[in-house]
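Consider the following input, taken from an annotated entry for PUB domain-containing protein (Cerrena zonata).
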Amino acid sequence: MELDNASEQSRSQTPEATHSDSAMAPRPTPDRNERAAAIERRLQQQRNTNSGPVANPSYTAFDEHHELRQKFRRMVDPGILRPNPRAVALEAIDILLKLSDNILKNPNDDKYLRFKPTNAKIKQYLVDPQGTLEYAVEMGFRPEVENFQPYYVFNRKKLSELQVGQTVLKEILEQEQAKEEAAAIAKQREKAVAEAAVAKVKQAFLDDRKSKALNDRREKEVRSARAARGAVAPSSPPPSTSREMPGSGRALNGTASTPPPPAYTPPNRRRSQSSDEDMSD
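Applying the prediction step yields:
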């Protein structure tokens, strides 16, 4: 009986002891290798999701298409942009982009899967320039001959390369168009600055002419006013023609002195005086 009670007590205490021991025991940490394996599984799942033929090759900085993108970029710059005239290079990039777009939009239409190198536009922008036909070949086009007619035919197994090549073409074409827009804006600004400078010089010339005309008018008005004042001024008296009487001289203070004229005598008295003088004689 005592043994049975002891066993029952031990059984009743065992769950509590086990629970307390598990609570106090440290939690196991996941293994580093297991975490790495989980991350690798997720990455592989993403790769499988984006590996279909119609998947858009949007990419991170370094994915499975990184080296191929770098190769395509080098084929465009410097491969196409540097040796060819800029207008020809940009037109060639645009044609390559249209070829790839047509195939991706119509993958089952054979007429979009090939082009003739003898076509005038294709020859001008893809065959004759440097690096352009090589880019088409890298995207999946191969030379073939049908009924003595040469073609470049796309290999459907190269859809992934075509998508990456198309993405790089779009990227570079956008960059070059942005450069052209910036250059056009800078040219417009330079033109506006030059026109403003010309307008400023012209305005300064006009202002100088206006100032000179105003000064000339003022001087003319001054001369006219002086002439008018001279016309209304009184004339100076004519010079005197009188002669000095005998006996004139100068006073002690240095001024000229003139003797007073003789007193006035009436004519009758003068005759009587002269007759008296005659009688006295």
